Amino acid sequence: MCKTGDGASGELPLPGEPHGADRAAFSALLEDSAEDLYEHAPCGYLSTLLDGTIAKVNTTLLDWLGHARGDLVGRRTFSDLLTVGGRLYHETHFAPLLRMQGQVRGIALELKAADGSRLPVLITSTVKTGPDGEPLLIRTTVFDARDRRAYETELLRARKQAEHEREELKRLNATLQQTLLPPALVSVPGLDVSAYYHIASTDMVGGDFYDLFPLAGGTWGLFLGDVCGKGAAAAAVTSLARYTLRAAAVYDPDPAAVLSNLNTVLNHEYNGTDPRFCTVIFGLLTPDTDEGGFRITLAAGGHPPALLMRADGSARYLPTPGGQLIGVLSDAHIATTTVHLEAGDTLLLHTDGLTEAHTASDKDDDRYGDEALLDFAQSLAPTTAATTVAAIHDLLDSFGTGVDDDTAVLAISVPRLTSEEQQ
Question: Mutual orientation of helices 369-380 and 385-399 as an angle, nearest 10°?
């Protein structure tokens, strides 16, 4: 017959209970004295009278601070152990809160060690009361927070480093963005021009661009476009598009030919696994020596139509239907239209960041839209290029964070004739 258990009694040990020699060692651990547990606890213990005088302190806290027991008990107060700032906080916040609530938990302070060093700690204090409810003494538990302080310091350092890197990235993005736009618009005789670029986020470089430049025979070229995407990849396409448009216009200023050349370049360069395309509107400005003003031929590839605000106060879009995105197809269809700009007329080109901005209603269908922009233009007409761009600037600012895409606007206007010129 087999014996069970680990002793003569034949009793079975409980599940998980040690037996034999292990049981003896386990029992010895349980017999550890309460005094020893207090003295060598993994945290500091401190008891003080109501006036703060230290009445009892455990060995753990004494070792942390490098003090002998006789240096503190009956001789020093709890606030004597604090730094100057900690003492001020104790008197103005800690002690009053402890009197009102009877306990204060998890307060971060610094204690002064005997050698003058500082020990970051977390303090929890409770007031012990007698049977009649009168406070007798204050019990305080002290947790070593050096590792936590080091962790918080490292987090703060990492946060500052991340903020510094983000600011540096913003500066780099701003510099890169500036290189993709003309430093200043050229002056066109007989024409007023104005432009504005609204940055939706400083964290990413946008893909909107515009330019105005002279061509042969007293003509002028202008364009405004929007590259798909953001960041460095979009910036590369933007740079290529601007260079190609200017070079193509010198070779053949016909607007449809200019966009066709750009389409060929983009389709050839970005037809792999990461295709890139853009929307562009290109215009050829020619002074009208017979009737005055300017004749402008616009070619568009998938771009929002230009807005014409007449001197008589009317406003309308100049549609270029059927114009396809530039760079998608090897032979994109380019739509064109021609209009005469008279004295007092203003032409506005814009990217879709304006019409796709969210209004303050915060709804899914709260896009500003083409109709709202047309109404806005009608309220401005007759106007000038500078006034139009300033009004668009204010409009975009009114949307706040609702503008989630960069927006570029370019306006040109033929100045009104003065009374002397009319005579």
Answer: 140
